[in-house]
Design brief:
Blueprint: E1 3-8, E2 23-24, E3 27-28, H1 29-39, E4 45-49, H2 53-61, H3 81-96, E5 102-105, H4 115-128, E6 132-138, E7 149-151, E8 154-156, E9 176-186, H5 187-191, E10 200-204, H6 216-230
Parallel strand pairs: 1-4, 1-5, 6-10
Antiparallel strand pairs: 2-3, 5-9, 6-9, 7-8
Length: about 230
């Protein structure tokens, strides 16, 4: 199976300025995704899609290819992920003169994936014949059954609330949240405008590796995890 890995990294981060090249544990944030992609055995090729020359140069220094600059209309705050990956897939198939079977989005904001995670996702896609594989994390104590609507200051139970007040988490049906680490999609599904398709399988990732950096507080959490847990 030929799989194109795409690391999308635009330059206009608002929550954390220059987030993709900000140092985490002494390395640019984007370097973690590049290293994981290079460590994977099942990716055919990996590239960085960016609109920013600095990000492109940092990526090249860490061993990634940044063969084009993303069009400005695909690098705004409102730009969606699907068109960005569609553009990268079309661009690289033209440059490489080949058709990829699938494309994998590797967001730099989830730095603690491994090459083994990437390979495992590809293996799931191959073995199941699914349309896609998306990484998820157990919601644990933040189960939707414990959530409430708020109306005029009153807490209102949703239809999917607990069977009884303060129901133990162990009795609730496990639920999972996308953690942003891996989106693996077959070519034709992506070309149709979807990451998921009709048959999406899960790659379950541990909670401590599922940090998704969007704010300065997220960055501090990532630093803590890197220093106290992931480097032990």
């Amino acid at each position: 199976m030929k799989v194109l890995g795409v690391i999308p990294a635009r330059g206009g981060s608002k929550g954390v300025p220059k987030k993709n090249v900000k140092l985490l544990g002494g390395k640019p944030l984007i370097a973690y995704s590049i290293e994981a992609a290079r460590a994977a055995k099942r990716l055919t090729r990996v590239i960085v899609s960016t609109d920013d020359e600095e990000i492109a140069e940092v990526s090249r220094r860490w061993g990634a290819d940044a063969p084009f600059l993303r069009p400005a209309e695909l690098a705004t705050d409102a730009a969606k992920a699907v068109p960005v990956i569609q553009h990268a897939l079309e661009e690289m198939e033209g440059r490489d003169d080949q058709v990829y079977d699938a494309v994998m989005m590797l967001q730099p904001t989830t730095p603690f994936r491994t090459g083994a995670d990437i390979d495992r996702a590809i293996e799931i896609l191959e073995k199941t014949g699914a349309d896609s594989v998306i990484s998820v994390v157990d919601v644990e104590g933040h189960h939707p059954a414990r959530m409430k609507y708020l109306e005029d200051g009153r807490l209102i139970d949703p239809d999917f609330c607990e069977a009884y007040e303060n129901q133990p988490r162990q009795e609730l049906r496990p639920m999972y949240l996308r953690n942003g680490m891996i989106y693996l999609t077959r070519r034709e599904v992506m070309r149709s405008g979807s990451f998921k398709g009709s048959d999406c399988r899960a790659l379950i990732v541990e909670t401590h590796r599922s940090v998704n950096i969007d704010t300065p507080l997220d960055f501090e959490l990532a630093e803590f995890l890197y220093k106290r847990i992931l480097t032990d």
